[in-house]
Amino acid sequence: MTDFTPPETPDTSRRRLLQAGAGAAALGLLPGLGMRNAHAQGAFDWKRFKGQKIEVFLVKSPRGDLLTKYHKEFEDLTGIEVGSEMIPEQQQRQKAVIEFNSGNPSFDVIALSYHVQKRQFAKNNWLTDLRPYIGDASMASPDLDFADFAKGGLNYAVESDGRVMSLPMNLDPWVVYYNKELFAAKGVAYPKTFAEMIDAAAKLNDASKGISGFVGRGLKNANVPVWTSFLLGYGGGFTDAKGKLMTDSTEAIESAKMYQTLLAKYGPQGVSGYNWNESQTLFLQGKAAMWLDGIGFAQPLEDPTKSRIVGKVGYGVMPAGPKQQVSALFGDGEGIASNSKKKGPSWYYLQWASNKANQTRMLQAAAGAPVRNSAYAAAQQSSDFKAPKEWVDCMLKSAAIAQPGLPVISPVTEFRDVFGVALSNMLNGADPATELRKATADFQPVLDKSEKA
Amino acid sequence: MSTSAVIAAAVPRAGFLRRRTRSYRLLTVPALVVVGAVIVFPWLFTLYMSAFDWKIGEAAHFVGLSNYTGLATNQRFIEAIVHTFYFTLLAVVFPLLLGTAAALIFHREFRGRGFLRAIFTLPMMATPVAVALVWTMMFHPQQGVLNYLLSLVGLPPSLWVYSPTWVIPSLVLVEVWHWTPLVMLIVLGGLAALPTEPYESARLDGASEWQLLRFITLPLIMPFIVVAAVIRTIDAVKAFDTIYVISSGGPGTASETINLYLYLQAFAFYNVGNASAVVVVFFGIIVALALLLLHVRERARWAA
Prior knowledge:
The structure holds 2 protein chains of 2 kinds. Chain A is α/β, with parallel strands linked by helices. Helix content of chain A is 46%, strand content 12%. In chain B, 32% of the residues are buried. Chain B has 12 helices and 2 strands. Chain A binds chain B through residues 94, 97-98, 100-101, 120, 124, 210, 218-221, 268-274, 278, 281-282, 285, 287, 411, 413-414, 417, 421, 424-425, 427-428, 449-450, 453, and chain B through 55-59, 140-143, 157, 159-164, 247-253, 264, 267-270.
């Protein structure tokens, strides 16, 4: 297991257009709020909720561990006592649904994965709109500077109607890890376009030496972001304005063909069973030239006890597709339960958890990629920061061109399952167009139902 | 007066009897409550839920039998049933054959028998999820030790659980490794209880070793083999952990059994109405299977 975030499988979606619009609006709005706070610093008091107790419900991950480790710091700062529960991601999601449905969740603050839970939480009004707190100079810390937050993160936190339901904490844009030694041996340059990417995979693939030109997730469900990474570059989307799936469009089929070519033709044998960990193992052994996955794997790749390719890893921004250059984005943040009776202290917790110190720690511990831009500069100043500069550059460039990698819909898991099966079937020889049409026909009623409910 | 005396004498007795029956009934109440609460109620509630289109967090709509008609035409569900039967058949037959063979071997006297028998039963004591994780590593087509072993004896590499064709047989391999010792223990118990007289008389009549096995040993231990078959069938039908950890039902849906499908519907998609219908159908299948096994067991008893 890697200590790095197993970049959870992501999702992009349906209200992408709406969202982008809202995100832009939020960007206009939020930095303004930040400035207002700056003028009213005196009123804010970290000790305001001294003596209260809140419950936070986190995901068991390097990020959850890190926050929990520093809870004492928050308690000393505010006098608020923190009770915390941390369970693995899948179980945390199931428990969240059940707790929220009970109408009386046992927690005040909850961590959420935007690519899976954003739409579900928003549709059910499970979280508290944070705008009143952000706008209140006596409640918002002067350090809460939204201008420091990456755009992709704010997009995730803001709803299409402008409500701010959470604070983003971690971003996971998808990038291409490549083996510089293998590239140099064949005289291949890092690809700038999809066409060059396929070409490079063909040249680097060397069955006689057991080297794959490309590796990535083929396992159903986990594999969907690999395809959507290509889909976004082809200019394809998930749904149109009326909520009709566009997953059998020409762009979708072309991107699925690219997925099939890269993985089935230039990928390792048995790739339809590969998740991120099998892909990582192959790449670590120097047996794959390119690997497309979330940004969070620098640590194992640069760890001499695990990796045979230390110092030879290139961190490449996703090449440009025929229509645009996009890095598929996933991410997580934290929000406050709408039924919480401790919203004030919970809001203080959110501000603390997303502050610069915690964001910098997260990056230094290689537990995730911070949403705060200032954390990158801060982390690099520290002597024990091991991630290569190239990785940091790649992260910043990718975050700048990032779009949600999965549709922002309620039945995300079902979407991933249905299309994941279709993609796995393609790896075993099925026709991309037929599979996508079937998956689209299967999933449309599920989507219609979820939006009507 | 005599009449009333009779009545007077009879009344307390009748009352005592009534009280006694009543008090016995009362004693069953705790058990009834527990069974009702943990078995009957959930079962009836599942039946009730299966008539609704209900996703957790959304309103439930009554849909009658449409969950069931939906399943009847759901290709993925039907394939899941086929996968379940295929997996169960292999995961019962192979441990039975190998377990019986192992029992026959370990029934003989030889040096180090106790030690070897203990070694042989070790797999059974391992945690299924841990076993599954280790096998996942061994199955890896590039880095796995199994393909390395194949290469040592000059065989081409296999894709194991990464191939839609071979995934179920490969999963069965794990089950066989894990559960053959259980079958061996049960059959060994049967062998230990066998009388020696039939063997002595058969030997006097000049029976060969094969004939002893075929006509005396196997018929006599058949009831034990049937018990092992029943236990194995129950285990194999409900297998979830091994499959979930190793292949998650993949590649694609090639190893998706009813349990895996059910898990997705209920805990990943939150479609509790549809999942309840799956449970009811699955329950029907299990009851049918249980009746069949009971029938076989009865026949084995008559034959013995």
